[in-house]
Amino acid sequence: MRDFLPQEVKRRERALNIIREVFESFGFLPMDTPALERTEILMGKYGSEGEKLIFRILKRGEQAISGESDLALRYDLTVPLARFFARYQNELPRPFRRYQIGPVWRADRPGKGRFREFYQCDIDIVNSPSLLADADIILALVKILSRFNLSNFVILLNSRKVLAGIIEAYGVPKSLQETTLINLDKIDKIGTEGVICELKKIDLPPSIMSQFECDLRQVGNDLENKIRENAIGREGLREVEELTSLLTPVLKGCEVKFSPLLVRGLNYYTGPIFEIYLKGRDGAIASGGRYDNLIEMFTEKRIPACGGSLGIDRLMSMVEISDDQEEQPISSLQVFVTLWDGNFRTDVLDIAEELRNSGISVEISLEEGKIGNQIRLALKRGARFCLFYGPDEKSKNEITIKDLQRGEQLTVKRNELTQKLKSLIQKR
Amino acid sequence: MRDFLPQEVKRRERALNIIREVFESFGFLPMDTPALERTEILMGKYGSEGEKLIFRILKRGEQAISGESDLALRYDLTVPLARFFARYQNELPRPFRRYQIGPVWRADRPGKGRFREFYQCDIDIVNSPSLLADADIILALVKILSRFNLSNFVILLNSRKVLAGIIEAYGVPKSLQETTLINLDKIDKIGTEGVICELKKIDLPPSIMSQFECDLRQVGNDLENKIRENAIGREGLREVEELTSLLTPVLKGCEVKFSPLLVRGLNYYTGPIFEIYLKGRDGAIASGGRYDNLIEMFTEKRIPACGGSLGIDRLMSMVEISDDQEEQPISSLQVFVTLWDGNFRTDVLDIAEELRNSGISVEISLEEGKIGNQIRLALKRGARFCLFYGPDEKSKNEITIKDLQRGEQLTVKRNELTQKLKSLIQKR
Hints:
Helices cover 42% and strands 19% of the residues of chain A. Chain A is an alpha+beta fold.
């Protein structure tokens, strides 16, 4: 988990504003859910590996001793959406296009660039079975990347139905299906031989194992032919082809690639799934898929839905590298008011109040002290102007303005201060 | 805990933007900390009552069985700031003026208008012992209230030193000090007799109890005379008087009131404390105080600090009532593109992409269907324009624009669409 210093909060806030803007320009509406969900809402949705990573809250009082837990920190923003939609469906537009930006928590072993608390930016379209919805989700995520001047990305596409086709074609027994898929998914990381090695560990029947070995080593047609052997596999291929044909004409110059072994960890996907990578960089910057059966776990009806998620941390780290925009100043401070001595505290507050009421941002000096030190502080704070109001000024009913950028100094009547500063700020 | 529907998220987002703007105009910088803190960071800071309300996280794996916990959800934003400041002090400006906006969690019994997850908007000034800092915190919080057109508020002031003076003057034994203060604090809620009744339950020595009874019933001078009996009490009164004299000239028309029995629940306060109420409304809308000893629990040095916190939930509920601003539309959608049939999906994506690249917000129809239904959907979404592109338009290389507000309809060349829409939007 991390702390964020002011400069970093500002960078993230600017990035989040761009993301919100793009989401809204696609017609997505914001919604929010609490960090904590009842434990039973989260269980049975993420697969056994995922479930282990859910942070659970200790019950209060007596039950704390027995380690009981009925609340847990959300693991993603999709399952909370499913619960939310089931509850508020009569108040929501249909299809419901939503976005949600917020932290999720996973009790992962912290690795490089991965955190146990991280922000997700999610969009989802609930109540549409159309592949246009899947396409629109991917296009919105890609639009964000282009708004950050990132280019050269690859979109990996697959369908859970393709994976179901593989499982069926090879006849993998039910108890080994999840582990088989998890291992096939590793092909990009550990290569063909690595996957074969991992598969050997899970006690697949020898006939299945030797088929996998054979087909994986000759990646490509053999696997695809296998997938075509059964109806569910063919349906998966059709989904991928159709989605590709929708995306390609719009995404000129961006690679859309069928990736038949792409799995995506989460259990709830049912149809097309995708990951977006920046070429030459590890780790997906965005990902998602269709989950037509998730919402019915909370409501009686089957409600088709699809969505995608963008990791702001990974995005920030990539923008850092390709950052060609000028760093903006950390502070938007315009005026710093120095303090002559303790007797002038009310005057300082009064001056600040007057200027702030005119929309000028003002920081006041809290301690009297050498004027040089106070000017140094004003400079550090990034203030443009510094004000002096001591016994001399007070007796003449004046105030001194120092322009810290130009080094110029002028004295004006006390009651002309706001007017003068406003015109100096505008002239800038 | 609560979910937030789109309209409510938008209202809150607008409110938070105003709050951020005011904080920044006072020279406060944003920072952020994670939701989870190590348990030992939070323990011993909030008093025994507060500590019971901390949500603790169950350790993962083996230890889960024994109910062990080493992480907890933050209870406020002040203790995380103290840890943060101790860690990053060399990278932070001095004095460090920070703001932080985020949720905190308390395992409270949910009452009306109170939640177990709620957002706090905090400002703090670290590294200044000056009462000007306390004044600036209060002024910033008051400024926010005026930005929401709230007026007629009361600022209740006290100092922990006044309370220490009371404890000393009455000779309350150490073991009963915390409970005595907690009960005195209830005077506004349960009245003098209620407080006396509660105090009787905690077994104060009879001589102390009868003094309390006597002085509380004649509230005012007797109590204040008592406070003046000892040095710490006098110092507390001086603080309150000085802070009042700093605030009153600036806060014209706003009541600043000494409230000698105001306690504020949190253990870490050491000096002036305050609560801001809207007249005639229960529950403080903002509150805070000085905590000169908290940061040294994380660093060797004594670092004076003060801060305040505004509850966005209470603010929103008050703004609701005094809301005279026009409700803004929930969606900023400009264009809705209808779908003729499945063969036009690529065209729809293409049109949307072109318009979005010109900064126009566009939602696409996901399902073909009766044109009347699609127009109804466009209206529901708040779109200004609806586009039609069917076989007829395609053959003539045209596209039809319907202005949903004026009911007008016109047909333009396909390649003039963006230009035409932009000028229609500008004319509006």
